[in-house]
Structures are given as structure tokens and as C-alpha cells.
Hints:
The chain has helices at 7-18, 74-84, and strands at residues 2-4, 21-22, 29-34, 37-44, 66-70, 87-95, 100-106, 112-116. By secondary structure, it is α/β, with parallel strands linked by helices. It has a single domain, classed as 2,3-Dihydroxybiphenyl 1,2-Dioxygenase, domain 1 (Roll), CATH 3.10.180.10.
Amino acid sequence: MIVVRDVEACSKWFQEVLGLCSGHGGQEYEMLMDGEALVVQLHAWDTHEHPHLGDESNPSRGNGVLLWFSTDDFDGLVARVEKASAKVLDGPLYNPNGRQHEIWLEGPEGYRIVVAGPRNVAE
């Protein structure tokens, strides 16, 4: 779960760029799905009585945190990134250490999103 200012805008980004689907929808909370699998949850800052979501006034939130996703369709993901004009920080590239293709994105509200393709264990 990540806590964000604009749940609906973030949900739209994850749907357009990562190809996820809304499992809940709304201004306060969203569940983003890949088929029947829950992938990520979005939660608004000032809703419900959740005192441990963090402090919205703390600018360090997200610093050093990477949301890492895997996909079996890396080419399709790259096409969605281009279509959505998502901000690419690095890639698409081949990471020889991980033996996989990766793309590093600036996601909604400054979160870093990395998506990796299937590992090539033969290399």
C-alpha cells in the first residue's frame, strides 16, 4: 500500500502504464488488480482513522523506496509506458546482473516504479 494525495489520479496511472485493473475505485481507497491477484493498494492521507499511514508533511516519504513489479509481457509494458507518456528515469535496459529487462519510471506523486521482464536464466 502506498499513501497518496490523489487516489483516482494514481489509480489511472497504474491502470494506463502497468495495465492493472481497478478492484475497488474511489477517492479514498483503491485496490489494483492483475486478474484476481491484488498487486497494490492506494490510500488517501486524510481518511479513516489510520494513525500509522505516515505523516503527509514529512518530505522523506518514498525516498529510497522502489515499488518493483514483474511482467511476462515487457514489450507490452513498454508500449503502455510510451502511450501514456510516463516519465522514464532509465531504460528500457537489460540488467546483466538480474538477467532481465527493466524500465525505471517516476510514478504517481514521485514514487519510483521499476518493472522487470522475465529473467533469462540461460544467460
